[in-house]
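Box 3.1 A note on notation
Throughout this textbook, protein chains are presented in two layers. The first layer is the amino acid sequence; the second is a token string describing backbone geometry. Keep the layers aligned when reading.
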Amino acid sequence: LESIGRLQAYKLNVKNVLFIVEKVLERSINYGDLLDEVYKSRELLSSKEYIEDNFSEFISEYIGRKPEGIFFSNSEAIMLDILHSNISYEYKLAYIENNKTFISRLTDLDGTELDRGIIDSLLQTNKLKFSSENITAYWSKEEQCSYEFISYLAMNLREDNCKAVLQENVSMCNSLINNPSVNDQTFTLMLPFVDQEIDEINSQLDRLRVKALIEKSVVSATEQNVNILMANSFNEELTLLVNLEEYEDSIIGVIARG
């Protein structure tokens, strides 16, 4: 059997590779770990080379034939090889959605033909390591953040890690603080890092958030902001803005014109 494996004298498919691996290693193998088992075993070097020479075809079958309830748990290096490969977009998504392995650095995916859907899938499944570097890498690539990214922040941003992440991503805080899709905890954790005035607050922000932004002195005394406060009947918040001495005359002028 080992000689058959060394000579690659068999049809390359998942069933045959699984059979050979279990016979050579003399133990049962978890389907989700199959590639790891092949890649780390000296006895299976020829099988590894056989797979590498036919990578796209083998991986497509490996993903497509995954039994129900099984999750892939191959190494990060193998997962990166899969995402960098020429297999179909649908198979890449299927691997991510049924995977337990984390990607440590988003920049390791640079140079691939990955579209936003692949990145969003990593975020949705929470399989991208949460770090300031990865947040920066994402924010520098995306002109507009996705719902998946906002949910990813909600899953991972906490009091004990927010400073390390947010102080390196102030521009993100400045943008997302005005986004009503951000949940309350994320809003609260981001607020101390906001350092840019908002010329037009989102009309969907609730009263508590508007008040917090005004108290933080990051709401500009623009006509748009005054009109939004008036339209939402945020009278106390408008009074609070008026009481900021530097804004008083301009705000009163806007109110008078209204």
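The chain has 17 helices and no strands. The mean pLDDT is 91.
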